[in-house]
Write a structure and sequence with these properties.
- By secondary structure, the protein is an alpha/beta fold.
- The protein has three domains: 177 residues, FAD/NAD(P)-binding domain (3-Layer(bba) Sandwich); 99 residues, protoporphyrinogen ix oxidase, domain 3 (Orthogonal Bundle), CATH 1.10.3110.10; 107 residues, Polyamine Oxidase, Chain A, domain 2 (Alpha-Beta Complex), CATH 3.90.660.
- Helices cover 36% and strands 25% of the residues.
- The chain contains 16 helices and 20 strands.
- A hairpin with a 2-residue loop joins strand 7 and strand 8.
- It is globular, with a radius of gyration of 23 Å.
- The relative contact order is 0.19.
Length: 464
């Protein structure tokens, strides 16, 4: 049986890896258990015929905390940063149109009608109050700006970030700053301006980043630093909490290679998806298990394709394109990888990655990978004017890719936080808590590590 002083982290995605990494730095012995043979969760990199494909997230925001982590891991030389001026596009009436990235740009944009543009630029001069009840993202945008902005700006963005439905997504849970700004300032534009850091303290919003060797560079580096304490191919079957003379302890029953064993820990971190965490805490707290099981997930198919540049009718210069549901395509959006980062393909070739499915089109996941690839490639022929078949393509189906921050999600998070206070030694760290982005997951992992370390230190002091 393992050393009962240790921390066990279950889940080797970015949240669990970040937590284990920081715990090790803090001097708390930690073992990380991952059901898959390799760590990384949805983050993965595949190379095929000279093309570099990402199996999940294509990039991350280079926040200060993320760049500090990159330096700590010693992988700064491999870091790639996209051009911050790279335009983003929305498909409207079959045509690619640039997304206006500021109120000033909205004035001259042809993406939106005159009435919608006026609603945006005049918002700072109007004062509104949020309703007392929880509001969906769709209801908020319609109330503040109208349907056109919902359909052609916000809904595609929600599909790109959450693969979700703005009619169900909670504004308070998914975009809390917007509700706070309206509540405090009566205007989200005024709130955004008031909340900007002083001049000279920042160089602008974080840039999009990746690595020359792909996104898996980050998860591999984290796993390397945690070292032999990472155990892959281990399935956690059940968790129980037992009371000992020295305090509560967690017994984790697990299976590896057909062999069962049990490890014991003073602290347990569940860095798994909510549905897995629900199963694991069932014997500890059935109400908590029920709360966790209520978190919905969206299925997403990732379709990566490599082409010759001569198959393009025009150069793909920018971040990519988001596609509103009203355009009647299955594709949610496409990232132009070779435009953002170097060495994604050989000279004379380029790489793109498309996403399909989500809450608004779950049926596509019933199709085979070959069928999904054919659908997306045909749609890219129309949207991007790509001719001919790709040199190579790959499809990854993620049946439960992204947690949905739907109406009522805040109640679930509060239940989890209450449980952490009421059940000493049990902690949670995952993308359903503070946001699905990689920086948010890393931040959450670090916060959890410090909470675990403080818990163990407090217990040690109490026992002395």
């Amino acid at each position: 049986m393992a050393d009962p002083q240790q921390v066990v982290v279950i889940g080797g995605g970015i949240s669990g890896l970040a937590c284990a990494f920081r715990l090790q730095q803090l001097g708390s012995p930690v073992t990380l258990l991952e059901a898959a043979d390799s760590v990384g969760g949805l983050i993965g990199t595949s190379t095929q015929d000279g093309f570099l494909f990402e199996t999940g997230p294509q990039s991350f925001q280079g926040t200060d905390a993320m760049l500090d982590l990159v330096r700590e891991l010693g992988i700064e030389a491999d870091l790639c940063m996209a051009d911050p001026r790279a335009p983003r596009y929305i498909l409207r009436h079959g045509q690619l149109q640039k997304v206006p990235m500021s109120p000033q740009a909205i004035v001259s944009s042809s993406l939106l009608g005159v009435g919608s543009r006026w609603k945006v630029v005049s918002e700072a001069f109007r004062k509104t109050k949020p309703p007392s009840e929880e509001e969906s993202v769709a209801d908020f945008v319609r109330r503040k700006f109208g349907h056109e902005i919902l359909e052609y700006l916000v809904a595609p963005f929600v599909s790109g970030v959450y693969a979700g439905d703005p009619e169900k997504l909670s504004l308070r849970a998914a975009f809390p700053s917007l509700e706070e700004w309206e509540r405090e300032y009566g205007s989200i534009l005024r709130g955004a301006m008031k909340s900007r850091p002083p001049k000279g303290t920042t160089s602008g919003p974080p840039r999009l980043c990746s690595f020359r060797g792909g996104m898996a560079t980050l998860t591999r580096a984290l796993a390397t630093h945690v070292g032999q304490n990472v155990r892959g191919g281990v399935h956690a079957d059940a968790v129980t909490r037992v009371q000992t003379t020295s305090g509560p302890r967690y017994e984790i029953r697990m299976t590896q290679g057909g062999r069962q064993e049990t490890v014991s820990a003073r602290a347990l971190v569940l860095a798994t998806p909510a549905y897995t965490a629900s199963h694991l805490v069932a014997q500890i707290s059935s109400p908590l298990a029920a709360s966790l099981s209520g978190i919905a997930y969206a299925a997403v198919a990732v379709v990566a394709s490599g082409y010759y540049t001569h198959q393009l009718s025009a150069e793909l210069d920018g971040f990519g394109v988001l596609i509103p549901r009203s355009e009647k395509y299955h594709t949610l959006g496409t990232v132009w990888n070779s435009s953002l980062f170097p060495e994604r393909a050989r000279d004379g070739q380029f790489t793109i990655t498309s996403f399909a499915g989500g809450v608004t089109d779950p049926e596509i996941m019933d199709k085979t990978e070959k069928e999904i690839a054919a659908i997306v490639q045909q749609e890219n022929e129309h949207i991007l004017e790509v001719t001919g078949s790709p040199i190579v393509s790959a499809v990854w189906k993620h049946p439960k890719a992204l947690p949905q921050y739907n109406l009522g999600h805040g109640h679930v998070v509060r239940a989890i936080r209450d449980a952490e206070r009421e059940i000493p030694g049990l902690f949670f760290s995952s993308n359903y808590l503070q946001g699905p982005s990689i920086p948010k997951c890393v931040e959450q992992g670090f916060q959890t590590a410090h909470a675990v370390h403080a818990h163990l230190k407090g217990r040690a002091l109490a026992a002395s």
